[in-house]
Structures are given as structure tokens and as C-alpha cells.
Amino acid sequence: MNYSDRIMNIKVIGQTNTGLVRGHNEDSFWFDSELGVAIVSDGMGGHAAGEVASLIAVESFKKVITARFTRSETIEDVKTLLSNSIGLANQEVLISMKNESSQQGMGATAVCACYWDKLYIIANIGDSRAYYIDKDKISQITKDDSLVQKYVDDGIINEEQARVHPQKNVITRHIGGHKDATPEIYTVEAVPNSKLLLCSDGLNSVMTDNEIFTIVNNAVDSETACEILISKTLEYGAPDNVTVVIFEIR
After folding, report:
1. How far, in Å, CA of 33 to CA of 222, rounded?
2. How high does pLDDT run on average in the chain?
3. What whole-number distance in Å separates Cα of residue 105 and Cα of residue 98?
4. Contact in structure between 31 and 12 (CB atoms under 8 Å)
5. Superfamily per CATH, domain 3-142+174-249
6. 3-state SS, residue 57
7. pLDDT at 81 over 60
8. Domain boundaries, the chain
9. Residues 106 and 45 sit within 8 Å (Cβ to Cβ)
């Protein structure tokens, strides 16, 4: 099976919004529907530094993917490419921090994905998320690298308490945090009419999984779903930047 056969049935669409509280947008994203790939990165560090870190993450992903993705032959090749893209982003952010004193302490989360041979392949570091959505349910695929996720794992709080916990923004692993930024890799079968949604935490911090599921499943198309998700986030006050990317099988 050649490259075009592997990705011919996929469409990718995405949107971002600064929100109603932040002065600028520190989220960065990129998608290529022809390649069937996308990334969402949420910057950390305040001022312009977070924006710089997330942009570095996105550009690193693009550099790795556009150079080598079409020549990948196996699922393991694609997993390696996604992991390498995060590794390169981490190196570039650390170098940028070393060279610019104003960027000290910056970092970024990243969730990236591709459609390949009837699978969604996902890499994640930080608390940006990937959700798998079919006609029956929504499933969170990625696991947050966060303090409240550890509390959930330890049975201290439940998922609903985690969503509103005052320490929900404390990230335990991210791009720019240390030399090792190996992401977690996930694979999900991409069945007909399924969707994969990538988002920054500006979405899931104000909307429940059920609300996301209902909007995506009831929208006439993915473009409309993105518009409604962001519009609803703004209705809820949008205290953070919000970015949404949706993959769908055509």
C-alpha cells in the first residue's frame, strides 16, 4: 500500500481563539489535511515566552513531518517520527532559553497526531488532549502529565474534581522542562465516521466531555463543530486560549 492510499480518506480542520482573559494567544497549531497530520501546542511561561515555545514546538513538528512522513513505511516509523518531532522541539526550546534571558522558564505542551493505515497515531506531553469520538461515545485517549492527574491516579480526587481543582494547571512534564521529553504514544483504530479531536486545555477546562461529544456529533461538519466549540467556550468566559483540531474519516 502506497502513501496516498494510506491517507486518502482523512480530512483535518482546526481553529484557535485568544479567549476573553488572556492578552495574547500562546497556543500554536498546524495541520495538513493532505498529509493527515496535526499538532496543538500550548505555551507556558507568560509574556511572549509561552508563545515562542509553542511556536518552536509546531515548527519542529512540521520540520520533521514534512521531511520524512511520506517516506514512512510502517506504524513504528510513524511513532518514531512523532517522538522525534517532540524531541527536536525540546532541544530547540532549551537552546532558545539558553540564548535569550527573557525566555527563561518557558515551555510548552504538545499533542500531535496522524492518520496512517486506518489508525490514529498520537503523541502527547503535557496536558493538551486527544479525544476519540464515534457515534456512541467520547473517550479521552491521552493522559495528562499534571499534578491533578496524579491525584486522580492515587484516588485522592475524581475526574470532575480534577477539572476544577485550583492546581489543575500544574504540569509535571512538558517541552523545555528537561533534556528528556519523550512523549507518550497512543494508537486508536480509525473506524468510518469516527473523529479524533486535539485541543489545548482551554477547551476541556470549561467544557465537559459530554458537552464536547454532543457538539461534535450534532454538528453538520467539522468546521461547524470547531466554531461551536470555541463559541461555547467564549460563552463560558474563556479564561484561557483555546485551540481545537478535528480529524474525520470522509
Report:
1. 12
2. 91
3. 10
4. yes
5. PPM-type phosphatase domain (3.60.40.10)
6. helix
7. yes
8. 3-142+174-249
9. yes
Please return the burial class of 164, using the count of CB atoms within 10 Å of its CB with bins 0-12, 13-18 and 19+.
exposed
At which residue does the C-alpha cell 460563552 appear? Answer: 235
Q: What is the pLDDT of residues 21-58, one digit of tens each?
A: 998 999 999 999 999 999 999 999 765 689 999 999 99
- Name the pairing type of β-strands 119-125 and 110-116: antiparallel
Mind listing the pLDDT tens digit for each residue in 185-218?
A: 999 999 988 999 999 999 999 999 999 999 999 9
Predicted model pTM: 0.94
What is the total residue count of the chain? 250
Indicate the angle between helix axes 209-218 and 222-235, nearest 10 degrees: 140
Q: What is the DSSP letter of 200?
A: -
Q: For residue range 113-132, list pLDDT tens digits in order.
A: 999 989 999 999 999 999 99
Report yes or no: 20 and 238 within 8 Å, Cβ to Cβ.
yes
Q: Which residues pair with 30 in a beta bridge?
A: 39
**Contact yes or no for 191/9 (Cβ under 8 A):** no
Q: Are the C-beta atoms of 183 and 204 separated by less than 8 Å?
A: no
Residue 153 CB coordination number (10 Å) = 9
